Amino acid sequence: MTQTDTQLEELRELVAEVLELEPEELEDNGDFIDDYEADSLRAIEILARIDKQYKVEIPQAELPELRTLKAVNDALIRHSVKKG
Q1: d(CA 52, CA 67)
Q2: Is 84 helix (H, G, I), strand (E, B) or coil?
Q3: Which are the contacts of 21, defined by CB distance < 8 A and separation ≥ 6?
Q4: Which domain holds residue 55?
Q5: If you count Cβ atoms within 10 Å of the first and of the last residue's Cβ in the chain, which end, N or C, has fewer?
Q6: In the chain, how long is the greatest CA-to-CA distance?
Q7: Chain centroid to CA 74: how far?
Q8: Helix (H, G, I), strand (E, B) or coil at 76
Q9: Total count of domains within the chain
């Protein structure tokens, strides 16, 4: 398992907890709103937990794009790189 795979699985657990799902229920491309009935408060909570766990701040302006686990993981990677 690569570091990216490990991070994705950690992120899956984090997001699943916020969405009150089992991690195995959360698909990489499942839409948080349409498939898991998430709302904007849960999306903000996901960003807050990412900030706390990874010390990476993803701007709330990106929330409309962060509708899947894969999109959140891509944003985490992108902003981690910017942080250095």
Answers
A1: 20
A2: coil
A3: 36
A4: 3-81
A5: C
A6: 34
A7: 9
A8: helix
A9: 1
* pTM attached to this predicted model: 0.90
Interhelix angle 69-83/3-19, rounded to 10 degrees, is 120
Choice between 83 and 52, residue whose per-residue pLDDT is larger: 52
Q: 60 Cβ partners below 8 Å, 6+ apart?
A: 44, 47
Residues 6+ apart with CB under 8 A from 61: none
Rounded CA separation 73/62 (Å): 13
How far from 46 is each of 2, 8, 31, CA to CA, in Å? 23, 14, 14
**What is the CATH number for 11?**
1.10.1200.10
CA-to-CA distance for 84 and 24, rounded, in angstroms? 31
CA distances from 79 to 26, 30, 51 (A): 23, 22, 11
Mean of pLDDT values over 21-35: 97
